[in-house]
Amino acid sequence: MTSVSLYWRIFGLNAVVLGSATALLLWAPVTVSVPVLLTEAVILVGGLVVMLVANAALLRIGLAPLDRVTRLMTTVDLLRPGQRLPVRGGGEVAGLVSAFNAMLERLEGERAASSARAILAQEGERRRIAQELHDEVGQSMTAVLLALKRASDEASEPLREELLQAQEITRGSLDEVRRLVRRLRPGVLDDLGLVSAVTSLATEFSTHTGLRVVRRFDPDLPALDQETELVIYRVAQESLTNAARHAEARRVEVSLYGDEETVVLEVADDGRGIGAAREGAGLRGMRERALLIGATLDIWSPDEVSATGTGTRIRLTVPAVRKQS
Fold first, then answer.
1. Which tens digits make up the pLDDT trace of 19-35?
2. Which Pfam family name is an example for this entry (predicted)?
């Protein structure tokens, strides 16, 4: 059945109203006097009101989807996929809504593809920098450390004391380089798996920030592919960093659990909460990584997290795609 376009519906309604008014004037015992009588004025004004109300109602119903399209256009976020408008009826407006939904589908696909390329390029660059820091800077500093040790063994006081101080400074710098290498490319993730990598991350984070980190890890997680494990690790890393830098938290709880269908990472702190603050580059980066593996990222501030603040809870829900052997 072919639907009637909005144009012809409005035209038909106007034709019916005007035709009824004309018939009323032709066959009804109603005349227009000069000056106009009160009853005649009431009939004319009543007919005008009926026509205006009917037109307004039809336009309201017919153009309501356009208002919904306008509102969604101003609020749509491609990092939160799945926002669609219902398509009702037919005609030009329904076609416009369908085209808008299709456009969102294409834009989300293109955004996901471009984000995947950018993230993969970023990880490749991190891997290269970590390798160079380890092979070149790390080895050079190790050589300097050995040379200082030999010189301090042969030197006399007070030069030996100065060489020992330089040796400690160099050793501290070497430890910092190694820590940067682990942040850029966590080797423990490749060698020992996701649980060990997140455990090491939480321990290192607690040591360097002084925050109390509580770990709740399920030992029976399904085996995941390398890309999925890296996304979970990066989201945990960014969540802990945000808790230390912005949340003013004293306690952070990191949970990792799952079943045969999903793996869930949760990071909850007892800080001041995210509130209505605008998401920064860190949170949007986490959303882009979630899209890369088809995961869902939820960020909110439940009141029950802390007695002194609302806190922030971040949950990453990942489809449990088994690692291929």
1. 776 676 666 655 666 67
2. HAMP
DSSP 187: H
| CATH code, residues 187-325 | 3.30.565.10
Q: From its phi and psi, is residue 221 left (phi > 0), alpha (psi between -120 and 50) or beta?
A: beta
The rounded radius of gyration (Å) of the Cα atoms in the chain is 34
Residue with tokens 């949170």: 283
Domain coordinates in residue numbering, the chain? 6-109, 187-325
Q: How far is CA 73 from the centre of its chain?
A: 17
Amino acid at 47: G
pTM: 0.62
Cα–Cα distance list, 126 to 10, 131, 195, 256, 293 (Å): 62, 8, 22, 25, 19
Please choose, from the candidates 161, 163, 162, 129, the residue with its C-alpha nearest in 3D space to the C-alpha of residue 146. 163
Hunting for tokens 């034709």 — which residue is that? Answer: 15
CA-based nearest residue to 239, from 255, 262, 224:
255
